[in-house]
Please model this.
Amino acid sequence: MTMNTTIRKLPTNVLGKDYIVGDLHGCIDLLERLLDEVQFNPERDRLFSVGDLIDRGPDSLACLQLLTKPWCYAVQGNHESMLLNFFLPYLQNHYLDNLDDVNDTNFIWNGGDWVERYFMLDQHSMTLEFDQSLLLVADLPLMWIIGEGEQRFHVIHAELLKPEFNYTKTQVWLDSDIDQWLAQHIIPSETEEGIYWSRTLMSQSSKKRLPALQAGLSFTFCGHTYAPKPRQVLSHVCVDTGAYLTIKSRSNLNGRGYGLTLFDVKNECYISASYQQSDVLWCDFPLVRPTH
Ligand SMILES: [Mn+2]
Model:
């Protein structure tokens, strides 16, 4: 169930920089380190979140409160979708009998247990600050389109795959399809869920090699499927590098890679911060463009 099926558009940022942040999952402190490092200017710069702001990490509510900032834009991830499904009866009735009644849902098992902190049993409701954030989540679009022509890019949570995708005949949605969705204010229902759930392109288990570039599709920043570093597949640029994984020391995370990634669209580079390193890592990431 999705509360909001909209697709929204913004002009190119001619004054400042646009940054894309990977799946936050509550890791607000890593984001603060990164914004400090790039000297983020809230007057001129913009921050785009690929969704999954909540669950698993230390402070999900603080991540949702980013949505009150005029410089922050986000899309709905599958975790926000699960949150909305979980609270759908509450959004309609403004009454919560008991959180335990719904504790067997996927939402709680996937890291949503943080919401229990904001439950007020005696009033059969959530706290005011939680309610305010929940309404902001319900208003999130599934996709942002930014700019025109060569400057254009998109922000989604997962992938822009057509339902009939297979590896021999590449089928991803193109700018022309997306422009139609925008004009009609709707994303086709058979596509909508894939935009925040699909892992076909980014799945590490996939042995098939797909080209970086898809003609006709502008750069599309996404998250959802983590890897040690960002990567480009069919014009999708996945910036989820598993921020929450670095909370606990894990042997397979030794060495650089993993953490929270902040991508600078204009300069085609990114920085990443992890709970296991005190310094941040800067890397160039030249996007693959069509050759003329
Ligand atoms: Mn996700």
Summary: Residues 23, 52, 77-79, 157, 224 surround manganese (II) ion (CB under 6 Å). The CA atoms of residues 5 and 189 lie 9 Å apart.
